[in-house]
Amino acid sequence: MHAYLVIGHESQELEREVSNLAKSLGESSFEFSITKINEVRELTKFLKLSFDKPTVILIRNIETATEEALNAFLKTLEEPQENVKFILTATSEHKLLPTVVSRCQIIRKGGQKLEVGSWNIKSFLTTSQGEKLAFIDSIRKREDAIDFLQNLTVLLHKELLEEKSDYGSKADLLASSQKALKRINLNGNVGLQLTNFIVNFPQK
After folding, report:
1. Sign of the C-alpha dihedral, residues 169, 170, 175, 180?
2. Over the stretch 80-125, which tens digit does the pLDDT of each residue have?
3. How far apart are CA 136 and CA 150, in angstroms?
4. Domain extent listing, the chain
5. Rounded to the nearest 5°, which phi and psi values hold at 54?
6. Beta strands, E only, 60-151
7. Mean pLDDT on 50-78
8. Per the CB 3.0–4.6 Å rule, which of 63, 69, 122, 155 could disulfide with 95?
9. What confidence tier does 29 reach under pLDDT thresholds 50, 70, 90?
């Protein structure tokens, strides 16, 4: 494997994992940003050099890259150079192009956050419809809505794997949360998408 995607929120544990991984993979390492297409071009130019020793390219917070930049970077991942390894970090693979994720070995550190503000997402599943609506009404920022739905999706997926009954209901809820997440990522109205999601939430 020539590319590793370390998933986790910024923490000392994440930094230790990245540092230890870089030391184990290469004798030298270089850090690049690929937020914009011109930065990808700079990286591509650098990679035209010949590397005699194992070398690591570290790219942090790759989810902040534009789609244009990710598509350009994908070509680099598809044609790996000998002696070059990539370490990418992100808070969630859901924010990345699936074609990028599929070319990486995923390492999860620190787990997914289950707290959104003062709410615990696991508790959220058992609250009343009115309480759910009151909670999502407090979510104004798109990034907060995405964070909430991503962590809810992770929890639902975990519970689905452990579910021995009511499997169909949990599967429908997971599909609904993923649909809402996709629409918000495509710049859908945050309040409208969250409200529709909660209105169709199965009652206990």
Report:
1. positive
2. 788 999 999 998 777 788 888 888 888 877 544 444 444 566 677 7
3. 14
4. 3-108, 115-199
5. -55, 125
6. 84-90, 105-108, 115-116, 119-120
7. 91
8. 63
9. very high
Give me the pLDDT at residue 118, please: 42
Residue 152 has pLDDT above 60, yes or no: yes
3-state helix, strand, coil in the chain (%, to 5): 55, 15, 30
Q: Would you say 173 and 184 are in contact if contact means Cβ atoms under 8 Å apart?
A: no
pTM: 0.56
What's the token pair of residue 43? 């990286």
Long-range contacts of 93-99 (CB under 8 A, 24+ apart): 93/5, 93/7, 94/150, 94/153, 94/181, 95/63, 95/146, 95/185, 96/5, 96/62, 96/63, 96/70, 97/67, 97/70, 97/71, 99/74
Helices and strands in the chain: count of H runs, count of E runs: 9, 7
- The closest alpha carbon to 22, from 54, 49, 47, 44, belongs to 54
Q: Does domain 3-108 have CATH number 3.40.50.300?
A: yes
What average pLDDT does the structure give for the chain? 82
